[in-house]
Amino acid sequence: MPKRTLEATLNSQKVLGICFLVAPIILALAILAYPIVYLIRLSFMHTVMFDTVSFAGLENYSRVLKSAVFLQNLKTTLIYAVGSIGVSTLIGGAAALALHEVSSNKLIRSIFLMPWVIAPVIAALLWRWLLNDPLGPIIHLIRNLGFDVGSIMLDPLLAFAGIIFAGAWRSFPFPMIFLYAKLQTIPSQLYESADVDGAKWRHKFRYISLPLIVDVLVVCLIMLTIRYVNEIDIILVMTGGGPGRTTETLSLSLYKTAFQNWEFGRSGVLSLVLFGINLVFAASYLLLQHRTGHR
Q1: Which of 9, 26, 136, 278 has a CA positioned 20 to 30 A from the CA of residue 123?
Q2: Which residues share a beta bridge with 46?
Q3: Cα–chain-centroid distance for residue 188?
Q4: What is the 8-class DSSP label of residue 51?
Q5: Are the C-beta atoms of 51 and 132 separated by less than 8 Å?
Q6: pLDDT at position 6 over 60
Q7: How far is CA 162 from CA 73, 139, 235, 238, in A?
Q8: Mean pLDDT of all residues in 24-30
């Protein structure tokens, strides 16, 4: 094949390859960008049901961000996220260590993974029944032990604890499987050397296991934070944000504002707030990945 013909063929193939790459990139950007642009536009508008009526300027932002309800929902979101992350990480870490130290049986691993594959609504219904007054088994057990406890779902503190534990129960397999996989990569010689030196279990965990799993642990924490900040189904099914608004998070407030009150202008503001929070944690995750990849 002549040199010019070969160069022309290669150039045409390069152009064709670029076209095949550019088309899906443009499509993906359009799919991602359009909802964000529309959401920003919506947040500056007065709306009636699905129709935009007039330009609102910063009124929607002022009403939402200066509202005491918004500040309460933000506080509730942070408490729910921190509490659920703490409980799910502790349970998941303990389960990972148990699987690593005691048993790696596939059946046991599958049992531990069951909460993760259950639909969130089903998990919420299950826990609402378990905590139901007076028919719930947990309430019945607590009262048989001699504790005088009222309805859990009507007590603000107990209801909050209930949704935190329900959310953590469903999510603990996520950190468990990541931490278990990381523990499997730690050389057994490190533990054997520690045994020779007479190290106890807590020392082996503190000086061997924990430093070597901390990178995976941080990734799990960031991913769980994004999950819990956007959690709706568990809270909606179990408490609906009650009693009062004590368990109403930003994401649940967004759902109610948009699909119960039909105030899409204000819901656009709440969506952008949640988008900003998620963007911060997503950027943290990517930055962590970048740093880990260059070690």
Answers
A1: 278
A2: 54
A3: 33
A4: E
A5: no
A6: no
A7: 18, 12, 10, 9
A8: 80
Q: The pTM is what?
A: 0.83
C-alpha to C-alpha distance for 199 and 213, rounded to whole angstroms: 19
Q: How far separated are the first and last CA of the chain, in Å rounded?
A: 47
CA 101 from centre of chain:
28
Give the per-residue pLDDT at 88.
93
Beta strands in the chain (DSSP E): 45-48, 51-55
Q: Is 247 helix (H, G, I), strand (E, B) or coil?
A: coil
- Inter-residue contact 241 to 153 (CB < 8 Å): no
How would you classify residue 200: left for phi > 0, otherwise alpha for psi between -120 and 50, otherwise beta?
beta
Structure token digits, residue 177: 């499987």
Tokens of 54: 């007039």
Q: What tens digit of pLDDT does each residue of 100-118 get? A: 877 667 778 888 888 988 8
Q: Which two tokens stand for residue 268?
A: 């656009």
Task: Let me know: does 281 contact 222? Beta carbons within 8 Å.
Answer: yes
Report, in angstroms and rounded to the nearest whole number, the Rg of the chain calculated over CA atoms.
Answer: 25
- Note the pLDDT tens digit of each residue in 217-251: 888 888 898 889 999 999 999 998 888 888 999 99
More confident residue, 289 or 236: 236
Residue 279 CB contacts under 8 Å (≥ 6 apart), including other chains? none
| Rounded Cα gap, residues 86 and 221, in angstroms | 9
